[in-house]
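**User:** Once you have settled down, spend some time on the protein underneath, comparing sequence with structure tokens, and judge whether sequence predicts the tokens.
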Amino acid sequence: MKKKSYWFISIGVILLIVAGIAGFNVWNKDKKQEQTSELIEKSPKSVVADFKNVIDISANPTENIYGNYDTNRFNNFSDLGAWHGYYLPDGNSPSLLGGFAGPVILAEEYPANLANTFDKIEITNADTKTRYDLSKASTDFAYYPGKLVQTYELDDLTLKLDLIFASNRTALIKTEITNKTEKPLRLSLSWQGTLLNKLDDGSNQIDLKQTLASTDNGVQVNFPNIRETWAFFSTTQAKYSIHHDMPVTNDLKQNTYTSKAKSPVTIAPNKDFATYAVESYTFTDQELQKEKANWDTYIADQDTLFQDNTKRWQGYLDKTFADKKNQNHPEYKNAAVKTIETLTTNWRSPAGAIKHDGIVPSMSYKWFIGLWSWDSWKEAVATVNFNPELAKNSVRALFDYQIQKDDSLIPQDSGAIIDAIFYNKTPERGGDGGNWNERNSKPPLSAWAVWNIYEKTKDKDFLKEMYPKLVAYHNWWYTNRDHNKNGIAEYGSMISDANWKKDANDKNIKDKNGNYELNDEAIIEAAAWESGMDNAVRFDKDGIGKDDAGVLVLENKDSNSKVIGYSINQESVDLNAYLYAEKGFLVSMAEVLGKKDDASKYKKEAEKVQAYIEKNMYDKKTGFYYDLQINDNSTKTKLLVNRGKGTEGWIPLWANLSDADKAASVRENMLSPNKFNTHMPFPTASKDNPQFSATEYWRGPVWLDQALFGVEALQNYDYKADATFLSKNLFNHADGLMGNGPIHENYDPLTGDGLSTKNFSWSSAAYYLMYQNTIVGDRTTSQTGIER
């Protein structure tokens, strides 16, 4: 009995020791977490001054603005929706010192450099007549969020130039000179600029025929009437104006001006002197008069304007870094700020036919100075996190041109949102532009944008405003893009003059019955544009392999057998997953707005779409989703496994419609290094697709919107670790992203090299959301109105 009791006592002691150790470990773990939380709470706040030159915007601009891919050779800064921007001077170009390089202007739809530097200061000692040589100064050039700063240190003085935007048409420049000597400095000040007056767009050189004129306290650039449809637009009302806060005399010589202060300034020893100027780029007389009336106010209120600018940008940062866990990921903060800077530089205010503020795909690219619908939805979902009003207006800008029942051109498309709008409408709409496009729509992601805006702002009025418009757009897909009326849609084309065959004189060709002959290739092109994935493998006209009929055109007709549009013979899995998600967002909106019948209706419709996709668009053998080929009479379908895997295959997971087993199989494909888990993950065509091309637009390059949907797809099914791992690879493997390079349109999945244009908005939006919601947080933007 004694031995047994000793044994029990020994066991008891051991258990007490183990419990004590375990208890200590739990206490120690809690203590460490508490200490970590305290450290995070005490971590210094991220401020504007922390983010210097996260994008390199140094430049020596010339009339030859474009480098590769019709893209501006240099990156620039803009703000508040202005239609012009600036660079920092290239430190290797002494002729630029003393001014901000550029400006780059947007000639309604095309970028051009107005000058290589404009209003460059020259400082002369009024007593010794010696000009201060800024090339001998110690210099510092900085691009901070929302502000450009140049500093020149000379023996006698410090020169500091600060530039912000005061409005959506005007920049404000502060010139501050500090006397470093023990004697008064008497200085003569002058400003000089030379117009480039030419645009070399790579194919031809255009004489811009701009002229200079003297104005009160400054100069004005006058523009001629130029309507070079593919290169440059201006009217005689367009002006670029410079206004100083002191009287100046002007000396104008052809393309060059010098504005000289009428009197020298005297700066006491160790004191400062500041002078201000505004620079406005306006399109109309009305805009000019509005800005002109504000110039003196901008200058008088300069202290407030500079403070407000810092406060606004600090607000962007505060909202972005509000989650204290961001302190655990400091290496990604510069990239996050870069996304905000890119989106804000691409912000355009109302002008021409554009009625609301919006974000263009890239201010740097010749063909991207307009607003595209699905671009705008993506940008809005990110931008609402730091600039809610811009997000709302980005949505409104496209809905301003939602097709109405009494539309003069395409009333049969009532409810549709067209592809892209620009400063100038098409000739058919009374304009003279060539970029406005209403041949097709874009994937239905507007409800996604509106709901995510509502979730951040709780602006019920905005929800009420947008809901009926979203319903009309949602319905349009089923009236005009559902060929066999089975509740499953296809991509296609509106009725458009671009759809007809043309003769050598670009005239429409008629058949023997006097009807225009249909150009199938043009409609297939529009359908691929409507998908957003312009040249994706799945839209190859000839198809791939056995029993693939290729891409064919189907006529969609109304109840009176009148053609109202066209579909291609594919029920695309991404389109219908987007529409399923849209039903989920509409359910959420309807519930907020008290529309119970609508909510029930969309839930029932969603059940049908989900069942169809799960039954007909998933291949069990390969564990992936594909488009479904249909024919004109719906008697036979073919799952297009033969065309290989693409990013469309994980959209059902993003839409929250897949069952868990199918999602697990899709995940396996996404994580396979031979498929989608490449050096930079999520190529648009799987690496093992025979048609894969790492650098060919939508046939292999990584597009960040599709990558975002892939990341969120994984998160939706509780694969958070995978989502985080792949997100970090998207950041760390993209060339220049973690340094001072620009954000590109797409990337080579095998090398991470940036492709196509740069300073791209939706890539920035996707990176912003991945930073906030995946690397730092754990949420998605997907629909939750319909439960799986």
About this structure: The two ends are 62 Å apart (CA to CA). The CA atoms of residues 734 and 752 lie 5 Å apart. Residues 1-27 have pLDDT under 50 and may be disordered.
